[in-house]
C-alpha cells in the first residue's frame, strides 16, 4: 500500500512537547507497546520502517478512533522515560494506509484521545551533570540528598517524586552514560527500604508494596525483575535436562520469530488449540503479537523441544505488569506461565517432563517467589497437569475472555513432588 508523506520541519516547542505526550500515553493511557524488528507479513509497515532506519518502534493503539501510530524509539528506558525520534507513522486501520506524520499531527492524535492531558511541559530527560567520572557515586549522593524528604509530605508527594523526579534522573543517566538502569533502580529501592524502619507514617511501606504509584505500574518493582525470564539474550538453549523415566531430553530456548512464527501459527490453528488457546489468528496478527511482546518488559515466549523436536510453547509473564494483578493481591515476585503442548498423540506429549522443565527454568531465577497460573476451567487436562507438579487452585476468577482457575505454586510445593529439582540453579540450569 502507498505511504504518504506529511513532514514539515519540527519546531523547538514541538520537540519539547512530543516526548511528554508520548510519556503520558505510556504511563496513563496504557495503549503502548514496543514493536521490534522488520515485519514479514505487513508490507506497508515494513516499508515505513525502512524509511526510519530504526529496529525498535513505539506502537500506540488508538483503535477507538480507527488509528494506530508508530514512533521510532531511539532509546528504551527501564524507568519508562524513553527517547523518541520523528517523523512517526500513522496507519488508518480500515484501509491499511500509512502516512508519515509530523509532530503537530502526532500531538493532535494524542490530545484527541486525552483532551485533559496537562503533562505537555514535562521534560522526560532532565539535565544531569555531563562528564561525571563515577555516575553511580553521583546517583547515590542524589539519593542521600533527596530521599529523606519522602515521608514529610504524605504519599501523594512521595509518589510524585518517584515518578516525576527520580525515574527521569535514572532515565537520563541510562541514556547519557549507558548506566544499567535496573542497577540504578535497585540502588533506589534499597535506599528507600532503609527509611522504612524509622517511618511512622507508613509512606515508605506503601511506596515499596503498592503495585501502582498514581496510575502507573510501580517502577520500584523493577528491583524484582528477572531479565533472564522476560528479556533473555539470544535464541539459543537456556535449559536442558534428561528425564530417564521417559528417556527424553527436554530443552528450552527463547522464541525466535524468524524460525518459529509459521510453526506456532500451525499449532494454534489445530482443533484442540482453538477452543482453549484462542490464538488462531492470521499470520500478520500473530506476527504483531510477538513483535510487540518480545521486546517488551512484561512477558516472553519460549519453545520447548523433546529430543531436539519443537513440541510445546510457553509464555512467562510478570504478574504485576499483567491484568491478572487486578484479581488478587499480586506480589512483584509473582511470575505466571501459559503452556501449550502441540501434539495430540499421547506418545509424543510428554506433559510431565515438559511442565517440570518449565518450572525448573522459572524457579531457577532468584527473583521468583511463586508461580501463578490462570488456566481455563474448561481444560481439565491443564488442571490435572498443574496439580501433578504442585500447583494448587486458589479460587475461580472471571477474566474478560474466560472463567479461570487461579492457581499458585511455591518452590517448596514443587520440590515436595520432585526433590531432585531443588538442586537446579541459574548456574546449572543449562547443564542438567
TrEMBL record:
<dbReference type="Pfam" id="PF13523">
    <property type="entry name" value="Acetyltransf_8"/>
</dbReference>
<dbReference type="GO" id="GO:0016410">
    <property type="term" value="F:N-acyltransferase activity"/>
</dbReference>
<protein>
    <submittedName>
        <fullName>Protein N-acetyltransferase, RimJ/RimL family</fullName>
    </submittedName>
</protein>
<dbReference type="InterPro" id="IPR019432">
    <property type="entry name" value="Acyltransferase_MbtK/IucB-like"/>
</dbReference>
<dbReference type="GO" id="GO:0019290">
    <property type="term" value="P:siderophore biosynthetic process"/>
</dbReference>
<dbReference type="InterPro" id="IPR016181">
    <property type="entry name" value="Acyl_CoA_acyltransferase"/>
</dbReference>
<feature type="domain" description="Acyltransferase MbtK/IucB-like conserved">
    <location>
        <begin position="253"/>
        <end position="302"/>
    </location>
</feature>
<comment type="pathway">
    <text>Siderophore biosynthesis.</text>
</comment>
<keyword id="KW-0808">Transferase</keyword>
Amino acid at each position: 500500500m502507498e505511504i504518504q508523506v506529511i513532514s514539515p520541519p519540527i519546531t523547538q516547542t514541538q520537540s519539547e512537547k512530543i516526548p511528554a505526550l508520548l510519556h503520558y500515553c505510556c504511563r496513563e493511557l496504557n495503549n503502548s507497546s514496543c514493536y521490534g524488528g522488520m515485519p514479514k507479513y505487513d508490507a506497508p509497515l515494513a516499508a515505513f520502517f525502512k524509511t526510519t532506519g530504526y529496529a525498535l518502534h513505539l506502537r500506540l493503539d488508538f483503535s477507538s478512533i480507527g488509528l494506530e501510530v508508530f514512533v521510532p524509539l531511539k532509546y528504551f528506558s527501564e524507568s519508562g522515560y524513553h527517547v523518541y525520534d520523528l517523523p512517526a507513522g500513522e496507519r488508518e486501520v480500515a484501509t491499511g494506509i500509512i502516512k508519515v506524520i509530523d509532530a503537530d499531527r502526532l500531538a493532535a492524535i494524542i490530545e484527541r484521545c486525552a483532551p485533559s492531558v496537562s503533562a505537555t511541559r514535562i521534560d522526560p530527560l532532565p539535565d544531569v551533570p555531563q562528564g561525571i567520572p563515577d555516575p553511580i557515586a553521583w546517583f547515590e549522593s542524589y539519593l542521600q540528598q533527596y530521599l529523606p524528604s519522602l515521608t514529610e509530605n504524605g504519599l501523594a508527594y512521595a509518589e510524585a517524586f518517584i515518578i516525576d523526579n527520580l525515574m527521569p534522573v535514572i532515565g537520563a543517566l541510562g541514556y547519557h552514560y549507558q548506566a544499567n538502569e535496573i542497577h540504578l533502580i535497585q540502588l533506589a529501592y534499597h535506599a528507600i527500604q532503609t527509611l522504612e524502619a524509622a517511618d511512622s507514617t507508613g509512606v515508605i511501606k506503601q511506596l515499596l508494596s503498592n503495585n501502582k504509584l498514581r496510575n502507573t505500574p510501580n517502577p520500584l518493582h523493577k528491583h524484582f525483575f528477572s531479565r533472564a525470564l522476560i528479556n533473555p539474550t539470544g535464541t539459543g538453549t537456556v535449559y536442558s535436562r534428561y528425564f530417564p523415566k521417559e528417556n527424553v531430553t527436554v530443552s528450552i530456548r527463547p522464541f525466535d520469530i524468524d524460525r518459529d512464527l509459521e510453526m506456532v501459527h500451525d499449532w494454534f490453528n489445530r482443533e484442540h488449540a482453538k477452543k482453549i488457546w484462542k490464538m488462531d489468528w492470521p499470520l500478520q496478527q500473530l506476527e504483531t503479537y510477538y513483535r510487540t511482546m518480545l521486546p517488551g518488559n512484561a512477558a516472553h515466549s519460549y519453545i520447548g523441544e523433546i529430543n531436539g523436536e519443537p513440541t510445546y510453547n510457553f509464555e512467562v509473564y510478570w504478574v504485576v505488569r499483567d491484568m491478572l494483578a487486578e484479581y488478587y493481591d499480586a506480589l512483584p515476585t509473582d511470575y505466571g506461565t501459559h503452556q501449550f503442548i502441540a501434539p495430540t498423540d499421547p506418545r509424543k506429549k510428554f506433559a510431565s517432563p515438559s511442565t517440570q522443565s518449565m518450572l525448573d527454568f522459572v524457579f531457577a531465577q532468584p527473583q521468583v517467589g511463586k508461580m501463578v497460573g490462570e488456566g481455563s476451567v474448561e481444560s481439565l487436562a491443564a488442571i490435572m497437569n498443574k496439580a501433578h507438579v504442585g500447583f494448587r487452585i486458589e479460587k475461580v476468577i472471571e477474566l474478560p475472555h474466560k472463567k479461570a482457575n487461579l492457581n499458585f505454586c511455591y518452590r517448596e510445593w514443587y520440590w515436595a513432588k520432585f526433590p531432585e529439582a531443588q538442586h537446579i540453579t541459574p548456574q546449572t540450569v543449562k547443564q542438567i
